[in-house]
Every structure is written in structure tokens, then in C-alpha cells.
Amino acid sequence: MKEEEINRCQIQEWYPKFKSVSIKTRIHELPESFVQYLLDDSGPFLLPLSISNDDALPKRVNNPEEEEDFVASEGSGDEAEEPTPPPSFPELEMRIKESIESLGGAAFPKLNWSAPKDSAWISSTGNLKCTTFSEIVLLLKSS
């Protein structure tokens, strides 16, 4: 099979032709910086800063007393190392937010070839239904 034949199977190629018999879909070209963020496994697992202040895990329990155990104390040997700032993708977040709204308030995230089915366990609902950009990123980054 030739590369051009494989490329014709990507959703952005076939969806316009089968739109009338398929589920409503919004397609976004992802910025290279976002693709690199998804692929990067070298640093800590950081979700992007949300311009909407959305939390991908809103049902989690926040107990400040327990968090003290996970804070590095001063003089811990890594003093010269600054913490990695979370990434931010405001333009992409706004476009995806608009798409979610146009789809009725929820979306099923999918890349060209796959959906993040293996990461449903990490979502707050245990499924792939996403209502925010942060939830989508959590699933994609975890997959």
C-alpha cells in the first residue's frame, strides 16, 4: 500500500464525503508545539494551564495537609533547578471550546488514527466523554 493511499484513510480526508451518514465531527489541525507536548515523556506530567480555569479532574479531593508531604523542602539539593512551568495553548483551547459547544456540550476526542481508549480510567467519569479542553488533554496525554 502506498503512503498516499494510507493518507486518504485519515478522518479529515473521508469525513467531508460521509458527513451525512456519520456523527457530527469537528476537525482541528494541532499546532506542532501541542503535538510535541503530547509526545514528550521526559519531564513531569503537567496539564496545560487553562485559560478557562477548567479542571480535568474536578471531583478530586484536595487535602492541603496531605500535600505538605509532597513538597520538596528548601535545600533539597535541586536548588538551582526551577520547576517546569506548565504549557499553555490558548488558541487551541478556544477553538476546541467552541467546537465542544457546537456539538452540544460534549465531545469524544480522537486523533487521525486512534482514540485514547486506554486512558478512560484516568478521567473523572471513567469514560471518553469530554466537556472541556483540559479533559481532552488529560486523555490524550495519558494515552
TrEMBL record:
Per UniProt, the ranges with Acidic residues bias are: 64-82
List the residue ranges of the region (Disordered): 56-91
InterPro entries (alphabetical): CDC123 (IPR009772)
Identify one Pfam family in the record: D123
- Taxonomically, the superkingdom here is Eukaryota
User: Which family is annotated?
Assistant: Belongs to the CDC123 family.
Q: Which PANTHER family match?
A: CELL DIVISION CYCLE PROTEIN 123 HOMOLOG, D123 PROTEIN
What's the protein called, per UniProt?
Answer: Temperature sensing protein-related
Q: Which organism is it from?
A: Abeliophyllum distichum
